[in-house]
Every structure is written in structure tokens, then in C-alpha cells.
Amino acid sequence: MTSAGMEFTDTPLEEVVAFLRNEYNIEVQLDTPSLDDFGIGPDKSVDIQARNTTLGAALQLLLNQLELGYTITDGVLMITTQEEVELRLTTAVYCLDGMDIRPNAMHRALTQTVAPSSWQDKGGSDAEAILVNDRTIVISQTTRAHEQIHALLGALRSAMKDATSPAKEHAGRGRAAQARALEETAHDQDGYNRAIGNSDADASDPFGGF
């Protein structure tokens, strides 16, 4: 987010959405049918004071006050109800290049630490993770789960990069050891938290780069 931040007082939701489209050049839409059922129309007034923060953090602050969430499909950010967020799955392809972890172990780590009860092969709904080859995994999951997966893979890549940097050799060994520990023992959410060294600070902010 730019230093100007996002500040609105008693402003219709549709105007805030228009601001996001124009200011950040992203496609944002309102899931009008679901929002209508939830009792929120495009003219719903909102207040937000967010300065010097990321777009993701500001958006989360805005949606929290309305008890809403969002999904991201084909580059479109859809503001909808929390119920719809949990129901809608999107499919993403993840590249495992540069990951010093066996593909099967990575598959196991992801499905056992990110929304473990949601996966189809564990009695969940339609969420699934398919290893296409040693370098590619295709995952159908909710937006929230994709955010956690993205954060986990990013943390592991960072650990691998540190391990190969002479200037950070000592720290890299420690973080690489964490990555190996994840491969061998990741079986619950606590294991995930220990591996990345942060419970969920990055997982909720897919727009941290804005």
C-alpha cells in the first residue's frame, strides 16, 4: 500500500471497492447475491482508518468489521460472506523447484498441516492435492488455505536460500534443519508453526507486496 493509506468515513462499500480498483489496478467485485442474503448491500456504510500498512492488512481490517471475507479466482478478488469463503475452492499450480524436500514428504506436510480435516482423502469435501511430477503439485483449496500454503512454501524456500549463503551459513543451517524437521515430523498445526517460525503472520496477507 502507498504511504497515503486508506481512509474512509461513513462511505458506501461500493465506493471503497471502486477505490481499490482504481488505486491498485486490481479487479474487485461484490458477490451481490450472497451479500444480499447476508443483509449487506453495496450502499452499506463503512469506516476505515489504515495508514502505512499493506493492502492485505487494510482489506482484512475493512472486511472484519462487516464479518465478510474474500476469494480470489482468475485474478478477481470477490468480496463475499465467510460462509462462501469456506465453500468455494480454487485451483492453483505450485512449483516445487528449489525445495530440498522430497515431493511425497512435501505433499504429506501440506495436507497434514494446512486445514488438515478439509482434504478429500481425509474425509473432507472436495479439497485435494495432486502431485503431477517431482516438481509440480496441483491444489484445489479455499483462498485461506492457499494463503497458508503460499506462506509455508515461501518460508521453506527462504530457509533453503539462507542455507546456501556463506554470510548466513550458521542461521541457514538452523533454518534448513527446521525444514528437514518439517519433512520428517510435520503432522499438526503446531509443527507448521514451528517450521516457519511464525504462526500466521504472513498467511493472511496475500497482497503484502502492494
UniProtKB/TrEMBL annotation:
Gene3D superfamilies named among the record's database cross-references: 3.55.50.30
Question: Disordered: where is this region?
Answer: 165-210
Q: Where is the composition biased (Basic and acidic residues)?
A: 181-191
What is the official name of this protein in its record?
Answer: Uncharacterized protein
